[in-house]
Every structure is written in structure tokens, then in C-alpha cells.
Amino acid sequence: MGDGAPLIEVKGLKVHFHTEDGVARAVDGVDFTIAPERTLGVVGESGCGKSVTARAVMGLIEPPGRIEQGEILLHLRDKVVDICRLDPRGREIRDIRGSEIAMIFQEPMTSLNPVFRIGDQIVEAILLHGGMGRSQAHERAIELLDAVGIPMPRQRFESFPHQLSGGMRQRAMIAMAMSCNPRLLIADEPTTALDVTIQAQVIDLMNALRRDFNTAIMFITHDLGVIAGMADDVVVMYSGKIVESAPVREIFHNPKHPYTQGLMNSIPSLAVWGARRLKAIDGVVPSPFAHQQGCRFAPRCSHAMEVCRARSPELLEAAPGHSAACFLHQAAP
Ligand code: SF4
To answer: What residues make up the domain containing 139?
Structure first.
């Protein structure tokens, strides 16, 4: 994916949660790369491990969660850091968060404090990472509010979060995330709670930010349709694993994994334009506590064969740059 050196390389990542009820294998062997200034869409139903993967990249896995295995290599200008080896509360990861990697969430109030003015919160984020005095940071905060499309940014600087609409709060959270010009912005379902029009505006905004700030984006969503207009590359996650990985056009024109095909059939707009029948995928994602043999999608797959229940398919290249973990695209084992 991408041409030059990577920004993030995730290799063999496993994140498990050790609870009284057993071990939940939330992320169970995941590999992907994010190149500078590219957008990676991470797609799958809830419970497939997307958000836990994102939190691992931010160095935010806390007990009972544990990184069991793997590496998350962040390529800085002068060195490579393995985020899995850093203390989640230590100085080094705190410096990386914000200055190199920032995250936005579905619910802006996760990041915004209800009792402080929007502008002050952005100023504090800028000051935290140094390099500017307070009055300079104040002007920079107004510039950022303007850059994310908040009208009358000087007046809006004074607003409290509850005085803004949901879409404006989302923009303010994006402004705060962009305040230190991170090289990677992780967006975890940022448009899910918004209506379709505002959703489209936020996606346009993120595309513009990527262009203007040269930021790479890891965009997490359960809705494959959302990333059609913004991702360069896509990984599809199911039950803690990547089941398909390809450039975005390939995913939409030639989806190979039955799960990806099921996600495609459940996108309302594509069903309308393609005159296809809108159809949800039968069944549910297996519990991360369940230790199922064979392909984890087999109970929901209309193509399941005997081999699928006995062996787990590996993620292998099915076409140049396009990988799928499915025996339909692999020589019989
Ligand atoms: Fe379906 Fe078998 Fe492919 Fe799994 S490996 S997705 S069960 S055909």
C-alpha cells in the first residue's frame, strides 16, 4: 500500500483481554501498513476488533487488555519506535499522542470538556506540545476553527461545547486533534452519529485536511459506503482478523471475501444504484471469548465447505495488491 516508506507498520498484532469470564481475543493476529498522507479505511461490524486496533496504535491498551504479541512500528523522522514496547502512561507515548498521532471519536464529548470553552481547550492542546506562546496559540486556535469550517471562529472560540450542534462539535474535536499537525489522524466512527448531510460535510472536511495538512488517516467504520469517497486502501476486519485487504477501487469493484460481499450488499446507496437487493448478513459476529475452529465466518457463509470448518484460511494474495483469507481464492489445502 502506498509508494514510499511507511508511517505505521502493524505486524502480527494480538490484543487480548484477560477477564474473570476468560480471555477475549479482541485482535488476533493483524498486519497492515499506513503510508504517509494516505487514508486507510478499516471496515467491519462492531465487535470485530477495529477500535481495539486503533487504541493499540495510540498506545491506549490498559488492563485487563494486554498486547500479547506483535509490533506497531512508528517511523519517525530519525528513528523507528515500537509503540507496543512503550509504557502506556510514560512520557514517550504522551509525546507521540498529539504530535505524531491524534484520535477522534464518534462522540465528541469523549474529547471535549463540557465546562471549558472550545477555544481554550484547543489552546491548551497547542500549549501542551510546546513551541508557542499563549497569544500565538490563541490565534492558531482561531485559524484551526476556521480551517474546519466553523463560521465566525472568533466568536465560536468563546462557546462551550453544549452551545454547538453535533456537527459543529465534531468539527471542533477535529480542530483540537489537528492542533499539533499530527502525521496520523485516527478517526473512530466519526460520522456514525451524524445525519447524512453532515456526515458528507465531515468527510469532505477530512479529505481537505489530509490535503492541507499532509496527514495520513486511519478511518474506522462499520459502513463500507462511507469510505468509498475517501479511502485509498481498505482492510476488512472480522472477528479480530483481517479477512480482506486491497486498494479501495478493488474492494468495491471486485470484493473477494464473502464477508466483504455481504457488507457491500448491505450498503443502501449501492443497492439502489446497482439495482441490487439490500440484504443484511445473517447471523452475528462470534464472541471474542469463543475459540472456534476453522474459518470464523463459516457459520454465516453460504459458500462454506468442509475444509472451512476444519482449517483457518490465511490472508494470502489473490490478485496483485489484493489479499483475502478465504479458501475460495486459494488452492485446496
Ligand atoms: Fe466462507 Fe470458507 Fe471462505 Fe470462510 S473460507 S469465507 S467459510 S468460503
So the answer is: 111-181
